[in-house]
Amino acid sequence: MSRLEEIDKNFKIETNIDKSDIKLYSVLEEPFCVYGVKYENGKFRRMPENVAKSVNEGVARLHTNTSGGRVRFKTDSSYIAIVAKMCNIGKMDHFAITGSGGFDMYVRVNGKDRFNNTFRPHFDFTDGYESIFEFNSNEMREITINFPLYSDVCSLYIGLEEKARIQAPTPYVSKKPIVYYGHSMTQGGCASRPGNSYPSILSRSLNMDFINLGFSGSARGEREIAEYIASLDMELFVYDYDHNAPSWEHLQSTHEAMFKIIRGAHPTLPIIMMTSTSMERCQDNHAKRRKIIYQTYKNALDSGDKNVYFWDADREFAPYAEYGTVEGCHPNDHGFVGIATSLEPLIKAALK
Q1: One domain for residues 258 and 155
Q2: What is the pTM of this model?
Q3: In this structure, are 130 and 234 located in the same domain?
Q4: 168-200 residue pLDDT tens
Q5: Rounded to whole angstroms, what are the CA distances from 234 to 179, 237, 255, 262?
Q6: In this structure, are 292 and 214 located in the same domain?
Q7: What's 52's domain CATH number?
């Protein structure tokens, strides 16, 4: 059974969108290109289900949240519609539903992806929704639609004019993705829309693919997740799970160990180590954690490793801290722009 047949077996695709000429396409069909997630066992997933279950209960639950998922294509349709079937929807009191459960769209203009529209769900939606955006012409456009940050997507269909042309998107500048591993901030909490998480901002600025392995409350640097990440073919690795390590002792016992597992599989891979942006940490505890992360970095340098980098939240996030979080912990859009802006020069230096 093909992937498309499996989706159609589970869901009857219907739409109430008032367009007589609309044709629905599964994003799993060519020439649509899906990035950051793969379809497995009735859902889009950020990593294989069996691997997620081997890590911890939180990763098993959250790996189906589609943070970092994107569908890209070109079309001259005068409108773009989405019909999304969703198996689980994240609704929280500190997080805009457009970010946790919505899709947003970017259009490429002069070589840059520019925000165009958010497909806004009603707050009380339960099993998916549909939405449409109309352009004022039929010119060929290159489209990127970002999947929700904190919800599960069982199927996604794109609605276009039946007569519209569809083409494959322009490839990213590198065939290999950047891989991000970390906590809820890495996953995207609490951006107002999916494209405002810092990995998404960087993807557009750098024109690079990425995989988001942020797991809210569940990033603990276990050997199983380290070995999975080590198996990936990637351009660069960024990790930041300080905030989810249950204690500084846990961080100390796992942080350098994780680095060594990944370095063993990728001797020259650029690796960026980040410290926590959270303002909730007591100063003494925060200082211990920062020192542990810095020590991993310094030990690598002292051993002759020339492909390690240290991003210090105490310095880099400080200009954004006052207005950059929702509740002292999770970044808002301003905070995510700050992280991306300060991290981008480091990534560019690492990739030279």
Answers
A1: no
A2: 0.95
A3: no
A4: 999 999 999 999 999 999 999 999 999 999 999
A5: 7, 7, 20, 11
A6: yes
A7: 2.60.120.260
